[in-house]
Amino acid sequence: MKLSIDKEIIEDFPDAKIGWLRARITNSSGSPYVSEMKRGLAASLNDIGISADTLTLHPDVRRWRETYSKMGVKPSKYRCSLEALLRRIFKGDMWSVSDVVDCYDCVSALNLLPMGAHDMTKLRGDMVLRYVREGEKFYPLGAGDSVVECAPPQIVYADGEKVCCWLWNYRDTRDACVDDATEEALFLVDCAFETEWRTIGEGLAALAKELEAIGCTVRASGVISAASPSAEIA
Q1: Is residue 231 part of a domain?
Q2: Cβ-contact 45, 109 below 8 angstroms
Q3: How many domains is the chain partitioned into structurally?
Q4: In a domain, 232, yes or no
Q5: Do the domain assignments include residue 42?
């Protein structure tokens, strides 16, 4: 399986990068380690100057809003996964999905980098970050039987048969999600611009460290960018 960034995305977003990590994961829940990570999130974010009132002012959040505007959607309605996560944290709306999902969400928030994950057995062929094709449909996770009619210039992750994540990192598909049966997952770390707080490499290292702390086994990882726009994942 190959992961790549389409040349049109590179032309329009020359600083775009994707950090990727493949790991064998655990299917546990209720880890005290992860619970402690979640409890300390708001305070850790406050320490770096981010609060409910200031989060949209931080360059790493603000520039994702600009990116979403370029995709033809309202960033106040469709928020990147990072902004949505930060808002939940400051509202005290703490999630509880599984140790793995909760863990990478914590790492995403602390590093101000959008992150996602897919079950590798549910992916078909190669995965690419590209502009959506006219008429493509997206089947969002956590939205019942609803279907999204995609339209250019929206950006998606797609494999050989489906849209895996809509609006760059807004929402994953239910057809490739990590669940209780997942044994091996592909984690993605997104960047559309040069970040201020943490680099893709730093976020990837933090993700690997925390996944291993909860019993996962990291098999391989790397970063693709304009200089090297594809990588063999498996």
Answers
A1: no
A2: yes
A3: 1
A4: no
A5: yes
Res. 93: pLDDT tops 90 = no
Picking from 123, 161, 115, 159, the residue whose alpha carbon sits closest to that of residue 18 is 115
Helices 59-70, 81-91: inter-axial angle, 10-degree rounding: 130
Please give the residue range of the domain that contains residue 165. 2-226
Mean pLDDT of 46-52: 95
User: Is residue 27 pLDDT above 90, yes or no?
Assistant: no
Nearest to residue 72, comparing CAs of 134, 155, 149? 155
Q: How far apart are CA 143 and CA 221, in angstroms?
A: 31
Task: Count how many Cα atoms sit within 13 Å of the Cα of residue 58 in the half-sphere of its side chain.
Answer: 23
Write down the pTM of the prediction: 0.97
Q: Which backbone phi and psi does 14 adopt, to 5 degrees? A: -60, -20
Token readout for 98 is 């599984």
